[in-house]
């Protein structure tokens, strides 16, 4: 049984992560820290505090979950690792490859596990999609879109100094998806474009990607969609694979589906009911961090987080070069 400490008590911590830890038989929520004591108390920890350092100073805490604004992730990841804690950090783990490298160095020195809480990757639907994609052969095309309407202009996601922007906030989903279904090979950027909002963040970003084996991808993220839209589809060699039912935000849905049409035209629809990917993520992280997995369980490797950060940087760099 591992003791968890939460740094940050926002919506994701409240509605998803704290319930997942409470329902896990492998961990317990020992302490939670929030800007306001009331927010920390809503997570129902054994102890609540307004001082983030209290979480790191608690010798009984084994795992620290970090749910702060994007620009704070690297500093608190490094602090937690230096304090001897395992770390599960909200996406994006870092805002650059250099920051991922800082976290990796700290994890290596501490001998602790650190992973990005890209929860949808733990969902069995996505794990199945990755396996099927590997059998499609070269030359498949992937469409990946995550578009929302964000009207909360006072939120940190609209502040470039705090790691705001659609690419930082939503891009991790679509970029990790296209990398995962292409064996984590880095693509080249065929084209990229950003729309910049009044605060200086990208309110939308699109990119076309290509791999040496003929595979291609089109990605799109946006804060200004008239209607929410999420797409993850693959087409190649006469086959088609799609994840309807909100591939990147389906945590609250009772049933989601994976649709695979093979070369003969036969369509297989697999339903996944009552799957809590946050609970799966917490349980597997507990087993890996606790050394009880025996190699059977999985947690998102830092190498994959670094690949996502590198691709995000490349997309932004290509878009900026056109603006200049």
Automatic annotation (TrEMBL):
Domain GFO/IDH/MocA-like oxidoreductase: 136-236
Pfam families given in the database record: GFO_IDH_MocA, GFO_IDH_MocA_C3
UniProt cross-references to SUPFAM superfamilies, sorted A to Z: Glyceraldehyde-3-phosphate dehydrogenase-like, C-terminal domain, NAD(P)-binding Rossmann-fold domains
Keyword line: Oxidoreductase
Residues of the Gfo/Idh/MocA-like oxidoreductase N-terminal domain: 2-116
Coiled coil region boundaries: none
Domain of life according to the entry: Bacteria
Membership in a protein family: Belongs to the Gfo/Idh/MocA family.
Protein name: Oxidoreductase
Species of provenance: Streptomyces nojiriensis
């Amino acid at each position: 049984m591992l003791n968890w400490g939460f740094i940050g008590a926002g919506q994701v911590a409240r509605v998803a992560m704290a319930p997942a830890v409470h329902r896990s038989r492998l961990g317990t929520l020992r302490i939670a820290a929030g800007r306001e004591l009331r927010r920390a108390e809503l997570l129902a920890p054994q102890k609540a505090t307004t001082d983030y350092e209290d979480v790191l100073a608690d010798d009984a805490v084994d795992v620290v979950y970090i749910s702060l604004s994007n620009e704070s992730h690297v500093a608190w990841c490094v602090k937690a690792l230096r304090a001897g804690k395992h770390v599960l950090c909200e996406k994006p783990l870092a805002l650059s490859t250099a920051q991922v490298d800082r976290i990796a160095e700290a994890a290596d020195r501490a001998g602790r596990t650190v992973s990005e809480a890209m929860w949808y990757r733990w969902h069995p639907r996505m794990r199945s999609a990755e396996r099927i994609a590997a059998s499609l052969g070269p030359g498949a095309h992937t469409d990946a879109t995550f578009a929302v309407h964000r009207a909360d202009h006072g939120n940190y996601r609209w502040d470039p100094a705090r790691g705001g922007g659609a690419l930082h906030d939503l891009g991790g989903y679509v970029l990790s998806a296209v990398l995962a279904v292409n064996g984590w090979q880095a693509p080249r950027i065929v084209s990229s474009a950003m729309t910049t909002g009044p605060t200086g963040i990208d309110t939308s970003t699109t990119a076309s990607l290509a791999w040496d084996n003929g595979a291609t991808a089109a990605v799109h993220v946006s804060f200004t969609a008239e209607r929410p839209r999420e797409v993850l589809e693959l087409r190649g060699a006469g086959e088609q694979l799609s994840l309807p039912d909100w591939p990147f935000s389906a945590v609250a849905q009772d049933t989601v589906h994976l649709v695979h049409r093979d070369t003969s035209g036969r369509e297989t629809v697999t339903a996944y009911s009552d799957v809590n990917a946050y609970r799966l993520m917490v349980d597997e992280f507990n087993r890996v961090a606790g050394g009880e997995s025996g190699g059977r369980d999985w947690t998102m490797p830092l190498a994959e987080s670094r690949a996502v950060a590198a691709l995000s940087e490349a997309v932004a760099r290509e878009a900026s070069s056109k603006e200049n």
